[in-house]
Write a structure and sequence with these properties.
Shape of chain A: globular
Low-confidence stretches of chain C: 1-6
Low-confidence stretches of chain A: 312-317
Number of domains of chain A: 1
Largest sheet of chain A: 2 strands, antiparallel
Strand content of chain C: 15-25%
Chains: A mainly alpha, B mainly alpha, C alpha/beta
Oligomer: heterotrimer
Structural class of chain C: alpha/beta
Shape of chain C: globular
Distance between the termini of chain A: 9 Å
Helix content of chain C: 25-40%
Distance between the termini of chain C: 45 Å
Strand content of chain A: under 5%
Number of helices of chain A: 14
Helix content of chain A: over 70%
Bound molecules: adenosine-5'-diphosphate, magnesium ion
Radius of gyration of chain C: 19 Å
Mean pLDDT of chain A: 92
Number of strands of chain C: 10
Chain lengths: ~325, ~300, ~260
Amino acid sequence: MTPRDWRIFVITALFIGFFPWVVQPVKAISHYVDVMVFAGIFTIVCLGISLLMGYAGQISMAQAAFFGIGAYTSGILTARFGLNPWAAMPAGALLAALVAWVVGIPALRLKGHYLAMATLGFGVIVHIVLSEEVAWTGGPSGMVDIPGLQVVGLKLKSELGWYYLVWTVVFLVLLFCFHILHSRVGRALRAIHEEESAAEAMGVPTARYKVQVFVLSAVLASLAGSFYTHYVTCLNPSSFNLMWSIRFILMVMVGGMQSLWGALLGTVLMTFVGNEWLHVFADFEVLVYGAILLLVALFLPKGLVSLVPRRAAARSI
Amino acid sequence: MDSFTFGAALLQYTISGLTIGVIYALVAIGYNIIYNVTEIINFAQGEFVMLGGLFAVFFTQTIQLPVSAAFFAAVIVTGCVGFAMERLVIRRARSSTVLSLIIITIAVSILLKGSAMFWWGKNPYSLPAFSSGRPFIIAGAAVQRQAIWIFAVSALVVICLTFFFRRSAYGKAMLASADNPSAARMVGIPVRQMILLSFTLSAAIGAAAGVSITPISLMEYDRGALLGLKGFGAAVLGGLGQFFGALVAGMVLGLAESFCAGYLSSGYKDAVALVLLLLALFFKPEGLFGSREAAKLKKF
Amino acid sequence: MEEISKSPAVPILELREVQMQFGGVTALRGISYGIPSGIIQAVIGPNGAGKTTLFHCVSGLLSPTSGEILFRGRPIGGLLPHRIAELGISRTFQHVALFKSMTVFENVMLGRHPRTRSGFWATGLRFPSMRREERRIAQEAMYYLDFVGLADEAELPAGALPLGKQKILEIARALATEPSLVLLDEPAGGLNMRETEELGDLIRRISETGTTVALVEHDMNLVMEISHRVLVIHYGEHLATGTPDEIKDHPAVIEAYLGEG
Ligand SMILES: Nc1ncnc2c1ncn2[C@@H]1O[C@H](COP(=O)(O)OP(=O)(O)O)[C@@H](O)[C@H]1O
Ligand SMILES: [Mg+2]
């Protein structure tokens, strides 16, 4: 990480640390802590998307499916088999990794529109399976009574506990991603994005890296899905459909695909927009989403971080 | 079910498979037209089908037009939507990256779907068949009259397109700009207009498919995505850009889906076409009828 | 460093009947040739002769339709490009293929890829081995930037360099993979006279480090001045070979070039 990244890191961490202290006493916004728990969970997904799409340039419309694989694996293993949630979490991640690997090897030979369609099709298939395997997943009506999380023997009851747990994970994942980016692996990923055959000719095994970063993004989405399950303690396939994949991408795009800070900013912003301010539109929320998506893609394709003065931006990754 | 012999059931599934397959083929042809000229895969293609059906509902029920007039009205209005999409959105995205382009057409599809929900609500609508009357019974299987219409409409579309691309100056110009845009521009073909035309035409064809299928399977605001995906499956399976490939592949998909619904599980019938789509993309992205060499020369 | 023999009897790269077809177009019609180790080998021929295609075949970006390519006696036809890079062949591109939004420094650091090993876990968790490796990558990248004379531009985005320097940067990136054979595809294209002269010096210095250089070039002065041997291809066929002086007066070569103009 560059010194500038460290500065932003410290400032963000301080902000996140003190945020509940500020909003909780104010009744009207005390539930912002709850919104921020969701924002944190989504950020974990979106950091993966930033690596995969923003840096490595590989499109995936299936991130909600991996989110769902983690969520349902956790839900099923804990609610139906009584497994400890902390043990179910890696199981979900493993399954997501396996699925991503099997799908990724053939899929990532495709590029552009084809890759988008392939991942989109895969995401829809996962959604169909979640809706159809009623015996396991509860079908369209979903699952309820999924156990919550326990941390060192204590049941994690308060939103505040969840808040600090989730955001600690977010910052760990953030560090992990930053370290990857500022290394030979990160350079290889960006090289694949910019000039794939040149990268290949300079000794970068592009196929392997693409699959690996796809698997990493799937694992992150799956982890986030597990946290989500234990936080809301009920599941419904509609949280894992194509629209959610698009929402995740929109979050990253709003902040800026090619910046981890952008992914974080966009996710928090769009989670607030989605959870807080779009409710007035009820069913027509989706229209607003479409409009934001279109406007961002047309007029701000590099996201909010591209509005940061150029000199500063050029120095960070 | 008792009076249904195995043979009759098989025939029945075949007929309904072919019927829906022809619809997928029309959607696929819509993809092909835009792809041929722009190399864009229009993720909003399925929404044109949905709009066609719902506009036809509007014209028959609200305006009280006869069904035949409603058909053409719906096709024209949806064509205008395609026109507007190119004019207002795609044209602004000329220098966008592939990712942005994908997001843009997805955003348009969300907007179309959302608007449809706004106007028509979430309920499915039906449309009277193009001609009334009892189904024909052939060897114990019922063939709805509308199914005949669907085949007729598709045949008409294919014949018209063939003439259009082979004979008319516009069609030839479109093929030329698809083949080599800069060369086409140099010989004075207005490539921008060709792109505009491709979106309009492809929306109109999607709408024709949508109006035709609505009397059989109803239509609602959120049907576009799946129809679009399956149509794309047909387009890939048939070899992107190839009309007759799309026709055959559409029917293959329709049959696979219909047999799955009949013999395996109706819940997974939507997954069948998607699995075939993935298999085609993964193992034969040049399509059943395309050669690997030819596919390599394309940009993908 | 291993002993480099300059005797033509030990080719570092051997082409045997290499053929490349694109659909109906045959770009290479069975080229056979051996590049002696340690020399500067020029490859010339009119536009469309198949020179770039030949480099694509050797570097693995294309796999030849038929024929064999041997690198230090080992067949490499059909290997993936990154394997070939690991074995010790690197290249530049006729149309500059830099990672434009990465810095000059990062471009050269990427060239160290085949000689380093940290993966996702090691880098994500910052293992000590990975940190040592990163420090080494930075030092070595700086060495190559110094070698080609771009150290001052290290922190600029590669896309911001003028074309001449981009071509030089591509060479630095290629050298950073520690190739024993480097393929330069029209490195002087777009360069002015002074830059071309400096390029000639640079190529000589590369050759002096023991790296074999294969050079596709249209600038005949440069070719005549620095290359030890010349291979002429024409319509995908091996037309002539020899020293620059022999080639200059070769009737078939003169005909090929005059016929084109
Ligand atoms: N990917 C390709 N597809 C089809 N034809 C190609 C391709 N690459 C090169 N060619 C053809 O092969 C021939 C040789 O091209 P090239 O190797 O680029 O020539 P040179 O580098 O000598 O100018 C040309 O006729 C060119 O049109
Ligand atoms: Mg060339």
